[in-house]
């Protein structure tokens, strides 16, 4: 899955890609990057400046290696499901500008993306690094940065590295690749791996899970 990190609205563009079905995803002991990451992000991974950590190893990394989980998803995803005790600083936020050109963009976004994914029209958080600095002033702290699919969090760790943070981890594949056993304490009304999915896609997902579970069983 080729991804170009060139647009401020990456949080919506990533949802145009096909989701890896959570009920059929093969789990591997090795961390694999499922996107072609360009430029600075790829360099940081290859040089070891950023450590990829799989969802199944995340709890161990937090407990034994001292990582703090930084959830950079927008508020509407975090409300559905979140890891207890995680920090939250969104990389993207709802664009509330109501100028004519922005309203037109929102309308197009809703028709092509929002209706199907439930994602709002977003803008990048202009004070993202500053907000993280307020929560974690010590830039030697270990931060495990996470989002739904691993793309927005890769953008976030690149920004944090540029802001002086030296011990950064990246949740490879994002929460979508997690299972119920990966994070022992999860809050919210939804399973963590489904929190990114919304709109019509969420309805289809629930129907498919219900069919797979069979009569009388919970999906």
Keywords for this structure?
two-stranded antiparallel ribbon; 219 residues; 37% helix
Question: Can you describe what's shown?
Answer:
The chain is an alpha/beta fold. Helices cover 37% and strands 14% of the residues. The strands form three sheets. It has a five-stranded parallel beta sheet. Strand 7, helix 7 and strand 8 form a beta-alpha-beta unit. Helix 5 packs parallel to helix 8. The longest helix has 18 residues. The radius of gyration is 17 Å and the shape is globular. The chain starts with 9 loop residues before the first helix and ends in a 6-residue tail after the last helix. 33% of the residues are buried. The N terminus is likely disordered.
SSE arrangement:
Elements: H1 10-13, H2 39-47, E1 50-53, H3 55-64, E2 68-71, H4 75-80, E3 82-83, E4 87-88, E5 92-94, H5 100-117, E6 122-124, H6 128-135, E7 142-146, H7 151-162, E8 167-171, E9 186-187, H8 199-213
Parallel strand pairs: 1-8, 2-4, 2-7, 7-8
Antiparallel strand pairs: 3-9, 5-6
Number of helices: 8
H and E string: HHEHEHEEEHEHEHEEH
- Portion of residues in helices? 25-40%
How much of the residues is beta strand, in percent? Answer: 5-15%
Q: Estimate the mean pLDDT confidence.
A: 77
Please list the strands of the largest sheet in the order they lie side by side: 1-8-7-2-4
**Largest sheet at a glance?**
5 strands, parallel
């Amino acid at each position: 899955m080729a991804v170009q990190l060139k647009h401020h609205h990456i949080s919506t563009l990533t949802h145009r890609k096909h989701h890896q079905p959570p009920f059929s995803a093969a789990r591997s002991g090795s961390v694999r990057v499922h996107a072609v990451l360009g430029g600075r992000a790829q360099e940081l991974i290859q040089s070891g400046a950023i450590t990829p950590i799989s969802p199944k190893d995340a709890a161990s990394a937090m407990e034994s290696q001292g990582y703090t989980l930084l959830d950079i998803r927008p508020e509407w995803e975090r409300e559905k499901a979140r890891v207890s005790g995680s920090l939250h600083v969104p990389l993207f936020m709802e664009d509330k500008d109501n100028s004519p050109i922005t309203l037109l963009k929102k309308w197009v976004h809703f028709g092509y993306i929002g209706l199907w994914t439930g994602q709002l029209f977003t803008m990048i958080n202009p004070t993202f690094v500053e907000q993280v600095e307020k929560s974690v002033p010590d830039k030697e702290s270990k931060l495990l940065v996470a989002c739904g699919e691993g793309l927005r969090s890769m953008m976030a760790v690149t920004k944090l590295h540029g802001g002086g943070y030296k011990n950064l981890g990246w949740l490879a594949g994002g929460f979508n690749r997690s299972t119920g056993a990966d994070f022992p304490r999860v809050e919210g009304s939804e399973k963590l791996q489904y929190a990114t999915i919304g709109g019509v896609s969420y309805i289809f997902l629930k129907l498919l899970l219900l069919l797979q579970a069979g009569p009388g069983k919970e999906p």
